[in-house]
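User: quick one, fold this
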Amino acid sequence: ELAGSAPSLAATANLFLGSEQGWLAAMATDDPIRPDADAAIAGIRAKGLHTHLLSGDRLDRVVEIAETLRFSPRCVRAACMPVAKLAYAEQLAAEAAGIIAVGDGVNDAPLMGKAHVSIAMGRGADLTRLTADAVLMSGRLMPLLTARRVAVKMNRIIRQNFAWAIAYNAIALPLAMGGWLSPAWAAIGMATSSLIVVGNSLRLLRDRVD
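Assistant:
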């Protein structure tokens, strides 16, 4: 499951100016949806992950974002306070194997703490970035797909390295203990085994997450 906040996809805010005599002005700011949000969310869904949109923004703005990015209405929540986001995350945690939270607002901090993996946007609130497990410094969402690909690849490589190490030791140690393998060849074999493990791990350098 992937739960994101609306400000991580697009930002909106209302500013008010007043004096002792009363209100002087009201200003509304509204940033467009991030350019890569549609492609990133489509890529995430293509991997079999469910997406949820939680936001403290007004209902009409959240509905607009949800419709543009094709969120299911049942997976969208507007006017969410931090406690509501946390409760929603707890409900997801009881139903899903894992939760990835993406956000950038101060009210996303509790959600970040509850998720199994939390990712903050680079220009987000300081508290959210400190609470998150990772930070996307570029401000783009597509690196989420790269990060997932690297994580899956790393898990596969770790398993390969463990399998190789177990197989090598299961063969080499009995031979060495039985005297069929000299200490010199055992040392060469151990060094070669370590080089194979390191070389296999270096395959991760082909992928880059901004």
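User: anything notable?
Assistant: The chain has seven helices and eight strands.
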